[in-house]
From TrEMBL:
GO terms for cellular component: mitochondrion. Pfam families: Hydrolase_6. Belongs to the HAD-like hydrolase superfamily. This is Haloacid dehalogenase-like hydrolase domain-containing 5. It comes from Gopherus agassizii. GO terms for biological process: glycerophospholipid biosynthetic process. Coiled coil: none annotated. The keyword Cell inner membrane does not apply. InterPro entries: CDP-alcohol_PTase-I, HAD-like_sf, HAD-SF_hydro_IIA, HAD-SF_hydro_IIA_CECR5, HAD_sf.
Length: 408
């Protein structure tokens, strides 16, 4: 995806609101998770409301007044460059090192790029689709101009592929679809011909399940989720069996939010804010990834709170639970403090208020289009945002109001 420009918002400055000096002293007890595409940017253009929102979120030194983490399903190896550009466009002062998110390496990471996280899980020998195509030139037949002119000698020294990781939508879908299927059907040796289809197939991991995303065009663009739909259906059609994922990474998966929470905690520690964070607000434009994910995490937090309360009761009446012996020690206060993760849907991206998610979830659920991934349950209650606002600036204003936080 293209890099973002740095135009200044042409709109008027937000009106001044009376500042209560005591309020400015209050350390934050809430934080934000921002999606990027359709919330802060559209393609290479920064959304003016995002610049307005960040004027409220930053102090006069360009430092965040409350903890913020950017959580995007999009990404590639240049993501850290884009993160820096986005920070500049929003007036956010972060160093190049702190802009990119690589598991545990940067103490002050602000950005979660799911594919980058995936790239850091410790695989040692990585081959790309291009490497496979080069080693086995007879596999990629759709584009006649890319077919080999002469019959190449057979490749014999190519390593056996032990797993497939899908990071994001490829450039040439026909090549990737064909070669990934070849790898799965050949047990990782696409030069070989097997008598029977191996099943289960070698492990497949996928990042970014977003069916659609919003760039400059008026209509949404195909996301990696659309590519996965193609791959799953081709596999099913060819083999009669289900393509199985070892893991699905990114929003709306819980692990993405756990990592975001961890980054929020690091930020709070680094800034020396004394109070723990009790509430997170996740702002996004995609009901299926941003809203479903935040609501799913909220449900998880509530269940965790309940389990803690029950364990507390048991402890107080002196009932020992042998199952939880190792975990009976109270956890770090901060983790215990997080109570909720509220979802805020904006109308500047994929979601349109006149779209296909019904206002009443009991109505027409059969006809409603489900844009979520095959392996996620169609639970309409998880698609309902806690709040729906026009844009990210309104989202920030709403949260500041709810939290009695001064706007300037
Ligand atoms: Mg988005």
């Amino acid at each position: 995806r293209a890099s973002w420009g740095q135009q200044r918002a042409p709109g008027p400055r937000p009106s001044l609101i009376a500042i209560n000096p005591l309020m400015l002293q209050t350390p934050p007890t809430f934080g934000f998770l921002f999606d990027i595409d359709g919330v802060l940017v559209r393609g290479r253009h920064v959304i003016p409301a995002a610049q307005e929102a960040f004027r409220k979120l930053l102090d006069s030194n360009g430092q965040l007044r409350v903890p913020v983490v950017f959580v995007t399903n999009a990404g590639n190896c240049l993501q850290h460059v884009k993160a820096q550009e986005l920070s500049d466009a929003l007036g956010l002062k972060v160093t190049r090192e702190s802009a990119s998110s690589v598991l545990g390496r940067n103490p002050v990471s602000l950005f979660i790029s799911v594919p980058l996280v995936g790239a850091c899980v410790g695989f040692q020998n990585v081959v790309t689709i291009q490497d496979v195509r080069k080693a086995f030139p007879l596999l990629d037949m759709v584009d006649q101009s890319r077919r080999p002119k002469e019959l190449p000698p057979p490749t014999t020294d190519f390593p056996t592929i032990e797993g497939v990781i899908l990071f994001g939508e490829p450039v040439r879908w026909e090549t990737s679809l064909q070669l990934i299927i070849d790898v799965l059907l050949s047990n990782g040796n696409p030069g070989a011909e097997l008598a029977a289809v191996p099943y289960p197939h070698i492990p497949v991991l996928a990042c970014n399940m977003d069916l659609l995303w919003m760039a400059e065009a008026k209509m949404p663009r195909f996301g990696h989720g659309t590519f996965l739909v193609c791959l799953e259906n081709i596999y099913k059609k060819v083999t009669g069996r289900e393509l199985k994922y070892e893991a699905l990474i990114g929003k709306p998966s819980i692990v993405t939010y756990q990592y975001a929470e961890y980054l929020i905690k690091q930020q709070v520690e680094r800034r020396g804010w004394p109070s723990p964070i009790c509430r997170l607000y996740a702002v996004g434009d995609n009901p299926m990834s941003d809203i479903y994910g935040a609501n799913f995490y909220n449900r998880y937090l509530k269940a965790a709170c309940q389990a803690r309360a029950q364990a507390e009761v048991k402890r107080s009446v002196g009932v020992a639970d042998p199952q939880s012996e190792d975990h009976s020690e109270p956890k770090e206060d901060w983790y215990v403090s997080l109570e909720s993760c509220k979802s805020i849907l904006v109308c500047t991206g994929v979601y349109s208020p006149h779209g296909d998610v019904p206002a009443d979830p009991h109505e027409s659920t059969v006809e409603t289009v489900f844009h979520g991934h095959r392996d996620f349950r169609f639970d309409t209650s998880l698609l309902e945002a806690s709040y729906v606002v026009q844009d990210v600036n309104e989202a920030v204003e709403l949260v500041f109001e709810k939290e009695n936080w001064s706007q300037e």
